[in-house]
Specification:
Protein name: FMN dependent NADH:quinone oxidoreductase
Function: Also exhibits azoreductase activity. Catalyzes the reductive cleavage of the azo bond in aromatic azo compounds to the corresponding amines. Quinone reductase that provides resistance to thiol-specific stress caused by electrophilic quinones.
Largest sheet: 5 strands, parallel
Strand order of the largest sheet: 2-1-3-6-7
Enzyme class: oxidoreductase
CATH architecture: 3-Layer(aba) Sandwich
Helix content: 25-40%
Mean pLDDT: 90
Keywords: Flavoprotein, FMN, NAD, Oxidoreductase
CATH topology: Rossmann fold
Distance between the termini: 13 Å
Order of helices and strands: EHEHHHEHEEEHEH
Structural class: alpha/beta
Shape: globular
CATH class: Alpha Beta
Family: Belongs to the azoreductase type 1 family.
């Protein structure tokens, strides 16, 4: 049995977010094909994830096992104990929402999700895999906007840092481009998401 951590970073109500429509369908299909797996949904807005305080920063160097019940460190333990990750977020101003960056600051903790060695930092989340489901206003998959895309690129970099290298991106582009059939785009991406969910 695997534990899947479903991390949602979108403040819109149920059914109104393009990103979450796709990611919820992904989770639905995944659950159908993996009925014994545990799926933990972590809605960052409902959790009230905030920016790190001085205390939170000071706790970011801990001994193994320390601070398991701490209001910030508990997220790092939850993260490292999961087997698979599903991220769902829009791209805002070329990057991820601030609340998702705040969450990443919560989980990037030395001696929990990574460690320092004589050769440099080493991730402690090896052998795990992730899917990043995102929606983007323009076409960030090809052309000149590729160089501007810093949402999925950043998420991949930090996951690599934590030891996660098996990462799949499911992106709905052109969501704010006039003249595009947005529902057709979503339907196409949703079909792709369902296929990936079957073997994730």
């Amino acid at each position: 049995m695997s534990t899947v951590l479903y991390i949602k970073a979108n403040p819109k109500p149920q059914g109104t977010s393009k990103t979450l429509r796709i990611s919820d369908k992904f989770i639905e299909v995944y659950r159908e094909h993996n009925p014994d797996d545990l799926i933990i949904t972590l809605d960052l807005y409902k959790e009230g994830i905030g920016f790190l305080t001085e205390e939170g920063v000071m706790m970011h160097w801990v001994e193994p096992g320390e601070g398991r019940n701490h209001p910030v460190l508990k997220y790092a333990y939850q993260f490292v104990e999961a087997d698979k990750y599903v991220f769902a977020e829009p791209i805002w101003n070329l990057g991820i929402p601030a609340i998702l960056k705040a969450y990443i600051d919560y989980i990037s903790v030395a001696n929990i999700t990574f460690k320092y060695t004589a050769e440099g930092p080493v991730g402690l989340c090896n052998g795990k895999k992730a899917v990043n489901i995102t929606s983007r206003g323009g076409n960030f998959s090809e052309g000149e906007l590729v160089a501007w895309e810093m949402g999925d690129r950043y998420l991949r970099a930090i996951l690599n840092f934590l030891g996660i290298t098996d990462i799949t991106t499911i992106a709905a582009d052109n969501m704010d481009v006039a003249g595009q059939d947005h529902e057709a785009i979503i339907a196409s991406i949703m079909t792709k998401a369902q296929e990936i969910a079957k073997s994730f």
